[in-house]
Amino acid sequence: MLHISTLHYLVLGGALFLLGVIGVLTRRNVVIVLMSIELILNAVNLNLVAFSRLWGGLHGQVFAIFVITDAAAEAAVGLGILIAFFRNKETINVDEVNLLKW
Amino acid sequence: MLIGGILVITRRNAVHSALALIAALLAQAGLYLMLYAPFVAGVQIILYAGGIMVLFLFVIMLVSIERTQRERQFNRQWLVGIVAAAALGGLFITVYTKGKGIFPDRALPPVEAQNTQNVGTLLYGQYMFAFEIASLLLLVAIIGAVVMAKKRI
Questions:
Q1: Where along chain A do its domains lie?
Q2: What share of chain B has pLDDT > 90, as a percent?
Q3: Can you give the three-state secondary structure of A27-68, one letter per residue?
Q4: Average pLDDT, chain B
Q5: Which residues from A are below 8 Å from B134, CB to CB?
Q6: CA-CA distance, A3 to A20, in Å (whole number)?
Q7: Do B141 and A74 touch (CB under 8 A)?
Q8: Rounded to an integer, what distance in angstroms lies between the CA atom of residue A45 and that of residue A53?
Q9: What phi and psi values does residue B115 have, to the nearest 5 degrees?
Q10: B146 touches A at CB < 8 Å
Q11: CA-based nearest residue to B97, from A10, A50, A25
């Protein structure tokens, strides 16, 4: 059986990060953009835990827990903004959000 | 897990995206278990797959999904977005191939028996201040979300 090294986890994390970036940059639906941000945060978490396993400490896992906390806060605030915006403009497309545009 | 991620950004129906994201998150919890991090895996399942995804599904049900399904799914800058992401991917590939020596493929250290206990000790000992700041951040997020979603303040 193939030995799974830290580099495999890092490559998987990088690929996941790329998927999230593509989702953020190309989708129009705000909900799916927020889900892509969750993908990015998860890729970072995977890297943190993999490095924590590599160096034998637990600091990476503690940081992963902090990142999960931040992701929860970000999702709550983002979805609150989304609901307020949908109530005002009846749309959830990112390119119709132009209230702050000059 | 990658399949789940791809499904997240390509589905037309947002509910299907959310279900694919749940699959990806559960797969990642399995990866945490493979990395001997059972506490993080549990937090991942309870918080992400349980809490945050329920929040997402609520909001998907609140906003109308029938109309957005018929519209264009990708914005006008999608080509630029793909190019930027490809540039970032090239950067990643360069780092991974050139920096193989930075990530040593050595024998992994032995696993401690009480993962959760050690994480808790570290969280309440060395990272006490950061922990308190995280709780403050959660409080601010709760108040912010309620204020945003309220009809009139």
A1: 28-92
A2: 3
A3: ECEHHHHHHHHHHHHHHHHHHHHHHHHHHCCCHHHHHHHHHH
A4: 79
A5: 66, 69-70
A6: 27
A7: yes
A8: 12
A9: -65, -50
A10: yes
A11: A10
Query: A44 pLDDT band (50/70/90 cuts)?
Result: very high
Least-confidence region, from A37-41, B105-109, B142-146, B147-151: B105-109
Write the CA distances from B93 to A7, A18, B90, B102, B115, integer angstroms.
Answer: 12, 11, 5, 14, 33
Q: Which residues in chain B have their CB less than 8 angstroms from residue A17's CB? A: 92
Does the pLDDT of residue B106 top 80, yes or no? Answer: no
Lookup: tokens for B90: 């090239």
Domain spans in chain B, listed from the N-terminal domain onward: 1-97, 114-153
Nearest to B56 by CA among A58, A92, A15: A92
At residue A52's C-alpha, the angle toward residues A49 and A55, to 5°, is 155
* Least confident among A5-14, A53-62, B99-108, B119-128: B99-108
Helix (H, G, I), strand (E, B) or coil at B153: coil
B2: its two tokens: 């990658």
Secondary structure (DSSP) of B108-133: PPPPPS-HHHHHHHHHHTTTHHHHHH
Domain at B1-97: CATH architecture? Up-down Bundle (1.20)
- Structure tokens given for A24: 């953020």
**CATH architecture of the domain formed by A28-92:** Orthogonal Bundle (1.10)
Our CA-based measurement puts residue A101 at a distance from the nearest CA of chain B, in whole angstroms, of: 17
Q: Which amino acid is at B135?
A: S
pLDDT tens digits, B55-91:
888 888 877 666 666 666 666 777 888 888 888 888 8
Under a CB-based contact definition with an 8 Å cutoff, are residues B105 and A5 in contact?
yes
pLDDT tens digit sequence for B14-38: 778 888 888 888 888 888 888 888 8
